Recover the amino acids of this structure.
């Protein structure tokens, strides 16, 4: 940051390189920050983000994408909020109730708590098989080669894809979430099409096979009676892109960064190691708070409303700075420190309200299994920070590459 | 006062059932079962905690 007057632009190079100094100023001095060129209000305090997300009455929708690029935000809506035609169905995240919920509920069952818990033995097996391959190498990228492949494999498993496709899934998602280093923003449209091309044949295969419910993530959408019609393969695949991307890109950065924090604090690591089964789930909650890479999500106002006392007009946008909320001292004491066993009674890393992360239970399962099995199998490890990489990003700011060295 | 559930929002996360197990339970497919919509005075605090804890903002307490 410089001595120039304070300015926050989520797509500026400074913010994309390290948003936290900006968040500190926003929370302290400008908790409701208006960005005129985007006609957007940014909310940085924990309680204000909770208030924003608590509107579940179609007041605030992701109708311009929850990750709009700068070009979208530069167009003023002038009192109108975008509406989407429902045939063909767009991605549910662009829609409000009840369409959003109908589509979400159709593929929710395999992501509910008990269904996800039944995946623990599968997850433990593939994590150990992966460690069997990686540990003899003594050095590998903890984000991509370990956690990335595991998360992508879980996505493949849910979509009934061969696990050998995990590398392609991971690569496609990683390419799609790169921010443009000059203009900021993520080219979601191109990423979306590439993901669709991978998913679509597996939807067609399920439909041809009768979609009997044995692959519930796909079958639930194939069998959905949507106002007296069925969804096309393209429409089904479109709804699955969220799980495809979200399930692949977020958890790996938390696993890698979380293990880095434990490595940096040997006393904390020693405490966690005393009882991995009991302590890893506790440490994982702090990893979720401290290391979650998603920085913000946008909504567009479809009704007049008020957040933190600020009136918002129809067509204006708001962004919830979840990355800032996680470091809010009003919610977390010593918020800038990683403390493995701190109480985390509330967390916004998965969002809140209508769009609360559909994969929350799967994410927690993967985090627990990966951290637990890694620590169980590895007694001593360090990191090559010279080769570590954290790319500037307006969206997923986290360790893209984090080489671990096994002693 | 009584409990209102926005059923289309509820994902069956089960967080509420941990806060107020006397009134809220989960079935074997993680669907929420409401034992009573009437919130008695002795359980009001627990129910308010359940409303606060719901990550979907699917619960509210309203006057009778």
């Amino acid at each position: 940051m410089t001595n120039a007057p304070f300015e926050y632009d989520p797509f500026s190079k400074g913010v994309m390189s390290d948003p936290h100094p900006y968040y500190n100023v926003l929370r302290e001095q400008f908790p409701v920050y208006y960005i005129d060129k985007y006609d957007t209000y940014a909310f940085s305090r924990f309680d204000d983000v909770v208030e924003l997300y608590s509107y579940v009455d179609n007041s605030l929708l992701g109708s311009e994408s929850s990750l709009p690029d700068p070009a979208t935000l530069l167009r003023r809506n002038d009192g109108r909020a975008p509406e989407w035609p429902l045939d063909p169905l767009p991605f549910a995240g662009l829609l409000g109730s009840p369409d959003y919920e109908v589509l979400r509920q159709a593929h929710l069952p395999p992501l509910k708590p008990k269904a996800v818990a039944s995946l623990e033995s599968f997850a433990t097996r593939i994590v150990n098989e992966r460690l069997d391959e990686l540990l003899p190498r003594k050095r590998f990228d903890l984000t991509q080669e370990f956690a990335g492949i595991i998360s992508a494999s879980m996505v493949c498993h849910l979509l009934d894809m061969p696990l050998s496709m995990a590398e392609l899934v991971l690569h496609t998602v990683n390419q799609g979430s790169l921010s443009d280093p000059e203009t900021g923003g993520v080219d979601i449209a191109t990423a979306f099409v590439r993901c669709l091309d991978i998913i679509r044949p597996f939807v067609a295969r399920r439909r041809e096979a009768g979609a009997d419910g044995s692959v519930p993530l796909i079958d639930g959408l194939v069998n959905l009676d949507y106002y007296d019609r069925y969804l096309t393969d393209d429409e089904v695949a479109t709804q699955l892109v969220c799980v495809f991307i979200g399930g692949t890109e977020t958890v790996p950065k938390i696993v890698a960064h979380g293990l880095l924090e434990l490595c940096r604090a040997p006393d904390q690591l020693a405490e966690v190691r005393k009882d991995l089964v009991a302590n890893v789930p506790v440490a994982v909650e702090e990893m979720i708070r401290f290391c979650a890479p998603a920085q913000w999500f946008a909504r567009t106002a479809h009704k007049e409303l008020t957040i933190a006392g600020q009136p918002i007009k129809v067509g204006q946008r708001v962004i919830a700075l979840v990355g800032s909320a996680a470091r809010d001292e009003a919610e977390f004491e010593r918020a800038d420190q990683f403390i493995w066993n701190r109480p985390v009674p509330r967390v916004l890393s998965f969002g809140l309200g209508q769009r609360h992360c559909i994969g929350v239970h799967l994410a927690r399962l993967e985090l627990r299994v990966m951290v637990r099995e890694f620590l169980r199998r590895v007694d001593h490890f360090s990191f090559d920070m010279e080769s570590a990489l954290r790319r500037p990003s307006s969206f997923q700011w986290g360790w893209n590459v984090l080489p671990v060295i096994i002693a | 006062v009584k409990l209102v559930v926005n059923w289309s929002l509820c994902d069956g996360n089960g967080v509420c059932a941990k806060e107020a197990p006397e009134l809220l339970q989960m079935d074997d497919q993680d669907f929420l079962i409401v034992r009573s919509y009437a919130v008695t005075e002795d359980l009001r605090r627990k129910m308010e905690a359940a409303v606060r804890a719901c990550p979907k903002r699917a619960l509210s307490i309203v006057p009778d």
Summary: Residues 44-53 of chain B form the longest helix (10 residues).
